[in-house]
Amino acid sequence: MIAKIARDNLKGFDPEIRQIERDIVTFFKEKGAEFGGKDPMFMTILAYFYVRERLTQQDLQDLSGFSAGTVSKVLHKLVEINVITKGMIPGTHKHLYIMDQPSVVFSQFYLPARRILLKYEDELKQIRVYLIAHASEMPRIRGFSGMLAAVTVLQRSVHLAFTLIAEMKEEAEKQVKK
Amino acid sequence: MRYGRLNAEMELGAIEKRLVEIIVNLGYFKGRSRRTSEILAYLCIHTKVKQKMLRKATGYSLGTVSNTLKELRQLGLIRESRDPEGRERLYELVVPLSQQLAYYSIAMNRYFHEWNEFLEKLENELRKNHIAKKKGAEEIRHFINKMRVVISVTADAMRRLQFTKPETQQEVADK
């Protein structure tokens, strides 16, 4: 309990506000899992970035209670998909992780996500064409129909995700102009 | 004929591996671990699976497979049932892959509604006199404004794509 109070003071939020922040983290975690099957630890760290914007790995360990390894893995993913950026704290060897405004995040996220989704959309199309072409030889083999159904749905989902992020980027840019 | 079938099985096996890899890589955007995504991928392709099949397909130990299935059950993503033909348990996605697009197009309206309600609750909390000026309140206010933008951008984009259907007057009235 004492350690928890010390941690909260260290992070500069009043205990009542810290409780609100915890509610936000819980909401992120629960809704992320319920509506998108997202990883709870990933959503916890993401929630702290939405609230605090600039954090070190140590800050995240203190706030979330996760191990250094877990925090490091999630940070690596968030940097890789361009949701946060990594910088240095001047005069130290410490890294600072930053989440920009939503419009910037959407734009940063857009290009790498687009590249990956386009690649998979194309590959899924090729797999589907191949499966349909060989349908007469394969239908009795276990897993064929499931695989064909999975490819069809995935192809549609990837196309939708691709169009969606493009729309989101456009919407975000409009909101900034308003 | 037998050779042909073997060939087809091998081809299908290679395609399955590639599909699993694609699903795993797409799961990266959801922050999932490779282990979780891999097991979910097999559930997407095979509908109902047993632990032993997952162990054979993924190469993970039975303990790892069992723990991952437990995590996925706790997250509400999969369900467990009894195999009528044996003693092993069967695992399947709560929302099968084939129904996921339809499911999410309905669920997303609820998602946006729950987010807006939550943000309103936070705003009311911050309006209370004894909290309004406390350390960290400004950050929470900033968070609320930011999330309103994120939610509105996502909802507008989905509506434009007709992924989510506009709510009927009755649905609005029910809220």
**Approximately how much beta-strand content do the residues of chain B carry?**
5-15%
> In terms of per-residue confidence, which ranges of chain A show pLDDT below 50 for 5 or more consecutive residues?
none
Query: Overall pLDDT of chain B, averaged?
Result: 86
Task: Give the beta-strand count of chain B.
Answer: 2
Cα separation of the termini of chain A = 46 Å
Secondary-structure element series of chain A: HHHEHHEEHH
Biggest pleated-sheet summary of chain A: 3 strands, antiparallel
Number of helices of chain A: 7
Large-scale geometry of chain A: elongated
Taking strands numbered 1, 2, ... along the chain, how are they ordered across the largest sheet of chain A?
A: 1-3-2
Q: H/E element string of chain B?
A: HHHHEEHHHH
Q: How big is the Rg of chain A?
A: 21 Å
**Considering DSSP H and I runs of 4 or more, what fraction of the residues of chain B is helical?**
over 70%
Helix content of chain A: over 70%
Q: What pair of chains forms the biggest interface?
A: A-B, 68 and 65 residues
Main sheet makeup of chain B: 2 strands, antiparallel
List the helices and strands and how they pair.
The complex is a heterodimer of chains A (178) and B (175).
Chain A: H1 2-10, H2 15-36, H3 40-52, E1 54-55, H4 57-64, H5 68-80, E2 85-88, E3 95-98, H6 102-133, H7 144-177
Antiparallel strand pairs in A: 1-3, 2-3
Chain B: H1 2-27, H2 34-46, H3 51-58, H4 62-74, E1 78-82, E2 89-93, H5 97-127, H6 129-132, H7 137-160, H8 169-174
Antiparallel strand pairs in B: 1-2
Walk me through the structure.
The complex is a heterodimer of chains A (178) and B (175). Chain A is built from 7 helices and 3 strands. Chain A is mostly helical. Chain A has a 3-stranded antiparallel β-sheet with strand order 1-3-2. Chain A starts with a helix and ends with a helix. The mean pLDDT of chain A is 85. Chain B has 175 residues and is mainly alpha-helical. Helices cover 71% and strands 6% of the residues of chain B. Chain B has helices spanning 2-27, 34-46, 51-58, 62-74, 97-127, 129-132, 137-160, 169-174, and strands at residues 78-82, 89-93. Chain B has a two-stranded antiparallel sheet with strand order 1-2. In chain B, helix 1 packs across helix 2 and helix 5 (97-127) runs antiparallel to helix 7 (137-160). The longest helix of chain B has 31 residues, at 97-127. At the A-B interface, helix 2, helix 3, helix 5, helix 6 and helix 7 of A face helix 1, helix 2, helix 5 and helix 7 of B.
